[in-house]
Amino acid sequence: MDYQTQPYQSEPPLRSEIGSFIWETIKIVVISLAIILPIRYFLVQPFFVKGASMESTFQDGDYIFIDELSYRFGDPGRGDVVVFRYPVDPSQFFIKRIVGLPGETVDIKKSVVTIFNDEYPNGFVLEEPYLDAGQDTLGSTRVTLKTGEYFVLGDNRFRSSDSRRWGPLHRGMITGRALIRLWPLDRVAKIPHIDYSD
Fold first, then answer.
1. Of the listed 96, 109, 140, 160, which one is catalytic?
2. Any residues with CB less than 8 A from the CB of 24 and at least 6 apart, and which?
């Protein structure tokens, strides 16, 4: 009786293919992390806005990206919206607008914010186009800012815990500048720079 024989074929190298797949996956993850983590921790960072202190510029639940890089090369400016660690409890993050710069004197009286500095020794009244109609800057305070100190206020002056209550904000507490709003979709926009008419 004749038997037909066929060459023996080994099983496909399954173990080798699995190892190759795992190695490729690890490489993709490592490369992705190498790209994403520096962006996440050194360039931009996402934040959800909580509370009403910046209405109507920002609403509760707005999703924003902050720029963490710019202040490594330059100083915060008047009108910048910044995210920072709350000086009273650094585990919390606040969002406010810078109105006073280092070396300046900020005077608040009868809802008028007046800035005194070397250029304007007699002071100038801060015009604030981002405030809603009827907003009043309550309180009476006068403070001279030291090196590295900023005076911050919420755009919703009635519902903001800011420098009127807990004093100047030190630069070391600032995380970054609000750059863009990504949510809600119908309000996606770059955060505008404010040009004050001083």
1. 96
2. none
Phi, psi at residue 93, to the nearest 5°? -110, 135
**Is 10 an annotated catalytic residue?**
no
User: Given 20, 27, 50, 53, which residue is catalytic?
Assistant: 53
Q: What is the pLDDT of residues 122-145, one digit of tens each?
A: 999 999 988 988 888 988 999 999
- Reported as a single tens digit per residue, the pLDDT across 58-69 is 888 888 888 888
State phi, psi for 188 to the nearest 5 degrees.
-60, 125
H-state helical runs in the chain: 14-38, 70-73, 163-166
Q: Domain ranges in the chain?
A: 70-177
Q: Is 96 one of the annotated active-site residues of the chain?
A: yes
pLDDT digits over 72-128, tens only? 888 999 999 999 999 999 999 999 999 999 999 999 999 999 999 999 999 999 999
Domain spanning 70-177, CATH architecture: Ribbon (2.10)
Question: The dihedral of CA 52, 166, 135, 150: what is its sign?
Answer: negative
Q: pLDDT of 18-35, one tens digit each?
A: 767 777 777 676 655 444
DSSP letters spanning 51-73: SSTTTTTS-TT-EEEEESSHHHH
